[in-house]
Amino acid sequence: MIIAIDGPAASGKGTLGKRLATHYGLRHLDTGLLYRAVAKALLDAGHSPNNQARAVAAADAIDPASFDEGALKSHAVGEAASLVSAIPDVRAALLAFQRSFAARPPGAVLDGRDIGTVICPNADVKIFVTATAQVRAHRRLLEFQRRGEPVDEAAVLADILRRDERDMSRAAAPLKQAADAHMLDTTELNADAAFAQAAELVERVRRR
Ligand code: C5P
């Protein structure tokens, strides 16, 4: 079984993806980490996230087995990831890894921006997770605070709005709901309630 979860920044798709994977005994891939790893490699080497040749070389060289999730989740890396992810050759370089991850038995939950539209168009279940920008900014703020990263809520909201706009308007694999995806609005749902609704969707598909 392949479950594709897409949605804007801080919509809750990562938490949901992990829980669904654990519940159904599937592997889980947070595909945002791939773009973040490319961005971090560029930043660490002192290159601009807009340097296409360096970004493609970094995408070709990434090693997901050695990811340090804590370092990849920083605010600066997220911003740079949204720039490198708009480069079509970077996306192309990361495509095969994502598809083969999804295809390996017993299947997987992948979360990102283009899983239901580009990476796994034949996924068994597609969920498009969303929430208002204000709620998402607040969640992201709590995440940064937990990590001890000082950030201001208004700045986080501005970043989220800018990132959404960039992710939705880029030419290469823009963020959009697949025609056959189920929308899950988590504005008023906590993680448990979001998981319960998503699991219900999965069960409906499994019964078919
Ligand atoms: O989900 P996360 O915030 O970790 O993603 C970081 C950035 O990577 C996003 O802003 C987006 O630009 C990019 N991304 C993408 N396609 C994916 C996953 C993430 O373009 N499948």
Explain what the structure shows.
The structure is a single chain. It is built from ten helices and five strands. With 208 residues, it is of the alpha/beta class. The protein has a single domain (2-207), classed as Rossmann fold (3-Layer(aba) Sandwich), CATH 3.40.50. Strands 2-3-1-4-5 form a five-stranded parallel beta sheet, with helices on both faces. Helix 8 packs across helix 9 (153-169). Cytidine-5'-monophosphate is lined by residues 9, 31-32, 35-36, 78, 81-82, 85, 112-114, 163, 167.
Short description:
It is built from 10 helices and 5 strands; from the N terminus they run E-H-E-H-H-H-H-H-E-H-E-H-H-E-H. It is an alpha/beta fold. A 5-stranded parallel β-sheet has the order 2-3-1-4-5, with helices on both faces.
Total domains? 1
Class by alpha and beta content:
alpha/beta
Radius of gyration, whole Å? 16 Å
CATH topology: Rossmann fold
Number of strands: 5
Major sheet description: 5 strands, parallel
Strand fraction: 5-15%
User: How does the overall form come out from the CA principal axes?
Assistant: globular
Instruction: Please list the strands of the largest sheet in the order they lie side by side.
Output: 2-3-1-4-5
CATH architecture label: 3-Layer(aba) Sandwich
Helix content: 55-70%
Poorly predicted tracts of residues = none
Q: What would the average pLDDT be, to the nearest integer?
A: 95
